[in-house]
From TrEMBL:
This is Uncharacterized protein. It comes from the Eukaryota. Keywords: Signal. Residues 1-18 form the signal peptide. It comes from Dictyostelium purpureum (Slime mold).
Length: 288
């Protein structure tokens, strides 16, 4: 009986402690910046975090990365952290609990290269479908939510991205569009201004990592008849899909070039089994 009582007290204490921890360590969205510093003594914080849509900043000693994001570590730390938004919380650094603070990542977002220069009026938004359906356009079917300020929302009708123009025709706009307006936590964070017409003009989009959020499904084995080859489409998660057979033939030898910050992804998806192409951001892993 005493043992049972002790176990109950232990479980109760643990639950209470966890709840208190959640209260004193709330999660927020943070911009991260890093600069190399030479300090006379330790600790020597080299990161600064700033609450999105706020001027509040604080120094950070270390960044704690969860297992699901370990493969992206080099894109989230040091100089690469200057293009990162973190959703997470801060806690005392284990080595210097009274002198320094660490940032604990819950979700990570990375800025796509070749956005536009941020406007003075830009703020950081998340976007969700509000369910409104209209007979005529424009229709305010999207709700823009100010990050960290969830009571401040605005209905809008369009979200405009700069990447098709800045990166070129090989940028995968279908992929980005699928991430822009979401009902889950996998959507982008947009640095944007909302104009008087209810249009969101995005300067920069931060996409959530990992991407894709789950492993691509296995493709069925498809055997084609003689003089035919298998071709694929690439879906909104950048995964190959829909294998089909097509007659083989001559393909052009020219290969397109992607701008700085992007690499060329190719797959057999065109007539005669020729390659299709997209330009993907440098930090996105290949999926095939």
């Amino acid at each position: 009986m005493k043992l049972l009582l002790s176990l109950c007290l232990l479980i109760f204490s643990t639950l209470c402690y966890a709840e208190v921890n959640d209260i004193i360590r709330p999660n927020f969205y943070y911009l991260v910046s890093w600069s190399s510093k030479v300090c006379v003594r330790a600790p020597c914080p080299q990161y600064t975090i700033q609450n999105l849509n706020s001027a509040t900043t604080r120094s950070i000693l270390g960044i704690n990365i969860p297992a699901a994001l370990k493969s992206y570590e080099k894109y989230l730390t040091l100089n690469e952290s200057n293009s990162v938004i973190i959703y997470g919380n801060v806690s005392p650094s284990p080595q210097y609990p009274t002198e320094a603070t660490d940032l604990n990542i819950v979700r990570a977002f990375k800025k796509l290269p070749l956005g536009n220069t941020a406007a003075a009026t830009d703020k950081f938004y998340l976007f969700t479908d509000n369910g409104m359906r209209c007979v005529k356009a424009p229709c305010d079917s999207i709700t823009a939510i100010l990050a960290n300020l969830y009571g401040q929302t605005q209905k809008v009708n369009t979200v405009k991205q700069p990447y098709q123009a800045n990166v070129g025709s090989l940028f995968d706009s279908v992929w980005l569009s699928s991430k822009t307006v979401r009902s889950d936590d996998n959507g982008i964070i947009g640095q944007a201004t909302i104009n008087s017409n209810g249009e969101v003009i995005i300067s920069n989009s931060y996409v959530r990592l990992p991407d894709p959020s789950s492993k691509c499904p296995a493709l069925p084995l498809l055997k084609c008849q003689a003089n035919n080859v298998v071709i694929y489409t690439r879906d909104e998660n950048r995964c190959l899909a829909d294998p089909n057979c097509t007659e083989s033939g001559f393909c052009t030898l020219s290969i397109p070039v992607c701008p700085e910050g992007y690499y060329l992804d190719s797959w057999k998806g065109a007539k005669f089994g020729c390659n299709n192409y997209h330009c993907d951001a440098y930090f996105l892993p290949k999926t095939h």
